[in-house]
Design brief:
10 strands, 7 helices, about 270 residues, binds magnesium ion, six-stranded mixed sheet, binds adenosine-5'-diphosphate, about 30% helix, globular, single chain, alpha/beta, four-stranded antiparallel sheet
């Protein structure tokens, strides 16, 4: 672990929302470091600040105060355009709602982010098909969302998030709209992606989902109240999930967060 490189680093992040007369402190001083290849779950009750943190980690929002670095680069020093470029390159997003286009076949959905990366034509289609194969949907490329199960739809959304080959995959309640069985499909895919070296940060309030991760960070009232271990923490592994970090996690591979074109994300 000591040899692996830091992907994201947060120092004393705060986020304060001004609601008319009152201030809502969504993050109250969060310091965390996550290495490349880690598989991290962030848990906590509703309103604890998980989504706010994810928006900052995903470069969708800026903190009120504190320093956020991705690969040693301070996000606070970047213009909006630079942030967008960095986000498109490094981060893929997955949300509870799959946000798929109703009429488009799976390969089209997955291909879409490539146009923003100036990859088009047969190269784009080929990359989309490859990525669908990566999530186990090679034989569903021509299916529209209504012809797919919930778990399959979420895997299409994950493929869309991965098609630009991001370093980090950020998922906010990715199994929230799925039943246990189809949710399991998604968790099995995360496991595979982790083994392939992707960095995963999964936000959930579901303890079963968290137990699949290698490191569990618990938030309450905008602060981290426990961290089962990992980069920058003194605590040893083997927290609530009882798992230690495998050697795999230190492989020099990128992290993955899933892709959104717009800020389709809803707080809460
Ligand atoms: N855009 C916003 N404006 C005002 N308050 C917000 C906004 N987004 C989140 N909050 C508040 O910040 C706190 C943390 O919210 P959030 O990060 O969505 O928590 P979680 O994802 O853990 O449920 C909550 O009190 C929430 O009401
Ligand atoms: Mg949330």
């Amino acid at each position: 672990m000591t040899d692996s490189s830091v992907l994201i680093d947060m120092q004393n992040l705060t986020k304060v929302y001004q609601m008319g007369e009152t201030k809502v402190v969504a993050l109250d001083g969060v310091s965390l470091s996550i290495d490349e290849g880690e598989y991290v779950a962030i848990v906590g009750t509703s309103g604890s600040g998980k989504s706010t943190l994810m928006n900052i980690v995903g470069l969708l929002d800026r903190p009120t105060d504190g320093v956020y670095q991705i690969r040693g680069q301070s996000a606070g020093e970047l213009t909006g355009r630079q942030l967008a470029d960095l986000r498109n390159r490094e981060i893929g997003f997955v949300f509870q709602q799959f946000n798929l286009l109703a009429r488009a076949p799976a390969w089209r959905q997955v291909e879409l982010p490539l146009f923003y990366a100036n990859v088009a034509g047969s190269a784009a289609r080929e990359r989309a098909l490859e990525t669908l194969a990566q999530v186990g949907l090679a034989d569903r490329a021509d299916h529209k969302p209504e012809e797919l199960s919930g778990g399959q739809q979420q895997r299409v959304a994950i493929a869309r998030a991965l098609v630009n080959r991001p370093s980090l995959l950020l998922a906010d309640e990715p199994t929230g709209a799925l039943d246990t069985r189809t949710g399991e499909e998604v968790l099995a895919l995360f496991e595979k992606l982790h083994e392939e070296g992707l960095t995963l940060v999964i936000i959930t309030h579901d303890q079963e989902v968290a137990e699949r991760a290698r490191r569990v960070i618990t938030m309450r009232d905008g602060v981290v109240i426990s961290d089962s271990g990992g980069a920058g923490t003194a605590a040893a592994g083997g927290g609530s999930n009882g798992l230690s970090e495998p050697a795999l996690a230190s492989l020099p591979r990128p992290v993955a967060i899933v892709q959104v074109e717009e800020k389709v994300y809803e707080a809460g």
